Amino acid sequence: MTSVVVANIGELVTFEPERPVRHGAAVVLVDGVVQWVGDDADAPPADARVDAAGGAVIPGFVDSHSHLVFAGDRAAEFEARMAGRPYAAGGIRSTVAATRAATDDELRARLAALVAQARAQGTTTLEIKSGYGLTVADEERALRLAREVTDDTTFLGAHVVPVEYADDRGAYVDLVRGEMLAACAPHARWVDVFIDSGAFTVDEARIILQAGRDAGLGLRVHAGQLAADGGVALAVELGAASVDHCTHLSSSDIDALACSDTVATLLPLVEFSTRQPYPDARRLIDAGVSVAIATDCNPGSNYSSSMPLALALAVREMGVSPLEALEAATVGGARALRRSGVGEVRVGASGGVVVLDAPSHTWLAYRVGVPLVREVVGGVR
Asked: How far is CA 160 from CA 90, 93, 95, 187, 298, in A?
């Protein structure tokens, strides 16, 4: 076993209920698991020492929504969007074509690079979805590769209807809930459906989600990205762990979320990249909704894995404080993934800690765009 003490911490954000922020603290991790938290002067000896130099230390970010198994890019789509073309879900099909044509090694290399970029920005827990294969073999491959880097893999065969099924949506829904689900479930923890006018209806989503639940998978839902489409009500009804996007919500959606255990996962980098309105995180939190912040890193609607930038946008555009945004990007993400021991700093936690080149967590929003992550210690798959 290897022990590491992170010492000389100016501000330690733990999110422990009785003391969420401490000063003059130290943390000891053994093989990546927190074994001790206390005053710096009382820190026990360890095999290695990380000097925080008076900087802030925060829990590792929990990015609970990403799409990192893909090939190609959609830079031309982004350029057109910046020139005024509205975002639509159909662009996913161009990534599907590129991903199907890529080799395992090409997909694995891109995935490794994106995971490394995320970790360098403080992300220690990642969820990764399939959804750019849309055949039995390609969806199974995506999840098999994703499982090499994370335990939180999500089957998203219901991302869009592929072109070869454009005239027979029912047959594709049957494929997703049948043969494709059977091939993918051994590599997945979750099942997800994109509910949107360019993707799947609420009725189609219900069929797929119920089949995924029967196969032993937890439920996640894409909903409310382009309109208040009924997806939030379905997610709450079925007990989904998370409903993601939530850009457009009705009052009844908010009431339903507030009375449920379903987390509203907000993806502000998507709004930044698509020029859509930002979700009203302040209204959600004040209503008692559990909120997470994630990146939705993907080649189309947001090609950024930066949790610090997502946090800063939440502060600037969504009405939350820096500490609330950090909590949503750590504790909130852990709730969205139904994970314990990540997103906080306490004895037994295994999500790692992030040492900042800054005296306070507030600087993540204050010095937006500046690489403030000095070191990442520990972390989980």
From this structure: 7, 8, 11, 21, 15
Q: In angstroms, rounded to a whole number, what is the distance separating the alpha carbons of residues 353 and 381?
A: 14
**Size of the chain in residues:** 381
Spatial separation of the C-alpha atoms in residues 234 and 339, rounded to whole Å: 23
DSSP 122: T
The tokens of 19 are what? 């003391």
Token readout for 276 is 């859509």
Q: DSSP label at 195? A: B
Q: What percent of the chain has pLDDT over 70?
A: 98
The secondary element (H helix, E strand) that includes residue 224 is none
Q: Side chain identity at 65, as an amino acid letter?
A: H
Residue 245 and residue 125: Cα distance in Å, rounded? 19
Residue labelled with tokens 């090939």: 71
Please report, for residues 172, 189, 205, 259, 362, the alpha-carbon distance to residue 238 in angstroms, rounded to integers and kept in the order given. Answer: 22, 16, 11, 13, 37
Which of the four pLDDT bands, split at 50, 70 and 90, describes residue 228?
A: confident
| Mean predicted confidence (pLDDT) in 99-103 | 97
Is pTM beyond 0.90? Reply is: yes
Nearest to 133 by CA among 111, 109, 155: 155
**Does pLDDT of 197 surpass 90?**
no
By DSSP bridging, strand 19-30 and strand 3-16 are antiparallel
Q: What is the mean pLDDT of residues 60-75?
A: 96
Look up residue 358 and give its DSSP letter. Answer: S
DSSP, collapsed to helix, strand or coil, labels residue 66 as strand
Query: Which bin fits 378, alpha (ψ -120 to 50), beta or left (φ > 0)?
Result: left
Contact 58, 354 (CB under 8 A): yes
Q: Which residues are CB-neighbours of 325 under 8 A, at least 6 positions away?
A: 293, 311, 312, 314, 315, 318, 364, 365
